[in-house]
Write a structure and sequence with these properties.
This protein is mostly helical. 62% of the residues lie in helices and 0% in strands.
């Protein structure tokens, strides 16, 4: 792998790391910049956080990694709310979630660690790597439809599920409906981009709050369902229809 491909891979991995960090803590884009400014730990802007999440910030300055790494270490140190006096919005955000980024060995990631992930020298911690492989996308699409409809036909739950799906763009809603009805599968890239809104669909259905099931846990549930489906050998279609007819006949007899 050439250095450009390595950096691109690292930038992609870093975007998942930042997205997972925000989603697990329920943070808005303003939390990290606010902490950096109030605690004087570096400098990062709301727009930079957004671009990092969306893989659009190609060359962040050293102050970005300094801010993110120091904030992460501050979270682990358990400094309390004292330094944040006068900033109730930040205190409230941290009361909702203050989970730090930890390495596979349980150590907090610092500025240097984050820089190494961004340039592709090391992978992100396993617990914060949500990347979806292309070959697993069809199975995850099937598992998604099974989960959100609880195994029922799409026509019986279509209105309720579409009402819970938060995306407003017509193209995305039509694509979501096509996946749910089995007319197509999401690609890995599409699932990456859709994951957070698909997770929010659970909340819209009244199934769980964000605190009850995180985005990464949601993805793991889909992966488990997809693996189970692969292990279950389906009946021959004709045989399955015969069994349905027999069951119907016995039920009406």
């Amino acid at each position: 792998m050439g250095y450009q491909a390595e950096i691109e891979s690292g930038r992609e991995a870093f975007s998942y790391l930042i997205r997972a960090w925000h989603e697990r803590n329920g943070w808005s884009h303003r939390v990290l910049p606010g902490l950096a400014e109030v605690l004087d730990l570096g400098r990062i802007h709301n727009s930079q956080v957004s671009m990092l999440r969306n893989r659009k910030l190609a060359s962040p300055g050293p102050e970005v990694f300094l801010a993110l790494g120091r904030i992460n270490q501050w979270l682990v140190a358990g400094a309390g709310d004292g330094p944040l006096a006068g900033h109730p919005d930040l205190i409230e955000a941290l009361s909702q979630g203050s989970r730090p980024l930890l390495s596979n060995s349980g150590e907090p990631l610092g500025p240097g660690d984050l820089l190494e992930i961004f340039v592709g020298l090391v992978p992100p911690p396993r617990a914060f790597d949500l990347r979806i492989a292309e070959d697993e996308a069809p199975g995850l699409s099937f598992a998604l439809a099974e989960l959100l409809c609880a195994g029922r036909p799409w026509r019986l739950c279509r209105d309720q599920v579409l009402a819970a799906y938060p995306a407003a763009k017509t193209q995305r809603r039509e694509r979501f409906a096509a996946v749910m009805s089995g007319q197509r599968d999401y690609s890995a890239t599409e699932l990456d981009a859709e994951l957070m809104d698909l997770h929010r669909t659970l909340e819209g259905l009244g199934v769980a709050t964000e605190q009850a099931i995180s985005a990464d846990r949601f993805l793991e549930v889909l992966r488990q369902k997809a693996r189970l489906q692969q292990q279950t050998r389906p009946l021959d279609l004709a045989e399955a229809i015969r069994q349905e007819l027999v069951a119907e006949a016995e039920g009406s007899g």
